[in-house]
Write a structure and sequence with these properties.
This protein has helices at residues 3-23, 28-44, 46-62, 67-73, 77-91, 131-143, 156-173, 189-194, 210-219, 242-254, 270-286, 295-300, 334-344, 357-366; strands at residues 100-105, 111-118, 121-126, 146-150, 180-182, 203-207, 232-236, 263-269, 290-293, 308-311, 325-331, 349-353, 371-374, 394-395, 403-404, 411-418. Strands 10-9-11-8-7-12-13 form a seven-stranded parallel β-sheet, with helices on both faces. The protein has a four-stranded parallel β-sheet with strand order 5-4-3-6. The protein is 43% helix and 19% strand. It has two domains: 3-225 and 405-418, Aldehyde Dehydrogenase, Chain A, domain 1, CATH 3.40.605.10; 232-380, Aldehyde Dehydrogenase, Chain A, domain 2, CATH 3.40.309.10. The protein is α/β, with parallel strands linked by helices and 425 residues long.
């Protein structure tokens, strides 16, 4: 690693920290103006962005990148339109910075409360998905945080174009210069240096594969929010409405199979399996889904046109497929389903389909995951779908944030105390 490259990292970290101190007190009006500028520029600079993305896509395709990763990398006019809409949704949300919480008067007359404050500087290290450049930048700006963006080599041109757009739009609005930093050097060794900059970076958010997340969590000198690995189950209880179950499972698996909240495993109660499995399988066959089935599931599924059945192996349980593949297991009870999820789930998103109130409440209470669903698709685990506008990531941790992370999850608080001359006896 050259000294010049390390100096680039250090200079950009220092600049982001300095800008974050001023950004913490910038008015909501200026921050929202920056976001509206970003949304507008995603449309006016569409040709520039898509041209940069085509370069990345062609190079990635030629290198043999998997279909799931190519899908995450690709941008088109529709996706840019969706990104712009998400930006405007964030602009419409209340500004969390400065919110006063829990004010109370003590017996000695002190008035004590909390005020919500930005975390400071957020470092984002991510792979393949250029939309992350916009999502994280927008949420950081609105919550009053500086941000340092370090995308993957495979999406370099896309990220550079989008980061430049954000910087220009923010500057026009009056955001302090340096609040948004983009690391241009793609040498992976630089990540090690970035993860040692705890003097300037307050939180690191890695978004990518299990290898990246593990490396960042083990290497960083500052707090890290880990998550994004989604091994998601849907359990079909013996009292399930089959029409709901079929629709929920199809949506969770097929609507966009390459993302972390897509379904990976279907658990079916033995009491309904003989009727439910053929209906579920016929619907999934329409989406070209390959089913990896345990012995009981295989015995209940006869030939279905277009359906590929594969005997499940141990590695199918707890596997995030990110493809049109799902594991199928017949279970004896709700207890077995909950135990299976506890063993093989990743703490991301889990669902039950049931008309039994007690079973549904037990599942919601006992399944330990960031998002637990009753009669709904796991595909809703998303900042936009949760009314947060966008997200910087989905945390599967329990400290300090869990699930989709939006504006409030990028803030902390400080105690504020009003006195009138009190001294402690």
């Amino acid at each position: 690693m050259t000294k010049t490259a390390v100096n680039e990292i250090l200079a950009k970290c220092k600049a982001a920290k300095e800008a974050s101190r001023r950004l913490a007190f910038i008015s909501t009006e200026i921050k929202n103006k920056a976001l509206r500028n970003i949304a507008a520029d995603l449309k006016t600079r569409q040709d520039e962005i898509l041209a940069a993305n085509r370069i990345d896509f062609k190079e990635a395709e030629a290198s043999g990148m998997s279909a799931s990763m190519l899908d995450r990398l690709m941008l088109d006019a529709k996706r840019l339109e969706g990104m712009a809409a998400d930006v405007l949704a964030v602009a419409a949300l209340p500004d969390p910075a400065g919110e006063v919480l829990e004010m109370r008067t003590m017996p000695n007359g002190l008035i004590i409360g909390k005020r919500r404050v930005p975390l400071g500087v957020i470092g984002a290290i991510y792979e393949s998905r250029p939309n992350v450049t916009i999502d994280i930048s927008v949420l950081c700006l609105k919550s009053g945080n500086g941000v340092i963006l370090r995308g993957g080599k495979e999406s370099y041109n896309s990220n550079k174009a989008l980061a430049g757009l954000v910087q220009d739009a923010a500057k026009k609005a009056g955001i302090p210069d340096g609040a948004v930093q983009f690391i241009e050097n793609t040498d992976r060794a630089l990540v090690n240096d970035l993860l040692k900059m705890n003097k300037y970076i307050d939180l690191i958010i890695p978004r990518g594969g299990a290898g990246l997340i593990k490396f960042v969590a083990e290497t960083a000198n500052m707090p890290v929010v880990t998550g994004g690995i989604g091994v998601c189950h849907t359990y079909v209880d013996d009292s399930a409405d089959l029409k709901k179950a079929v629709a929920i499972i199809y949506n969770a698996k097929v609507q966009r199979p390459t993302v972390c909240n897509a379904l990976d495993s279907v658990l079916v109660h033995k009491g309904i399996a003989a009727k439910a499995l053929p209906e579920i399988a016929r619907e999934l066959a329409k989406g070209n889904v390959e089913l990896h089935c345990d012995k009981r599931a295989l015995s209940l599924l006869g030939p279905i046109p277009g359906l590929k059945l594969v005997p499940a192996v141990q590695e199918d349980w707890g596997k995030e497929y990110l493809a049109l593949i799902a594991a199928i297991k017949v279970v004896d009870s709700l207890d077995e389903a909950i135990a299976h999820i506890a063993e093989y789930g990743s703490g991301h998103s889990e669902a039950i389909v049931t008309e039994d109130y007690t079973a549904g409440m037990r599942f919601l209470n006992e399944v330990d995951a960031a998002c637990v669903y009753l009669n709904a698709s796991t595909r809703f685990t998303d900042g936009g779908q949760f009314g947060m506008g966008a997200e910087v990531g989905i945390s599967t941790q329990k400290m300090h944030a869990r699930g989709p992370m939006g504006l409030r999850e990028l803030t902390s608080y400080k105690w504020i105390i009003f006195g009138s001359g009190q001294v402690r006896p």
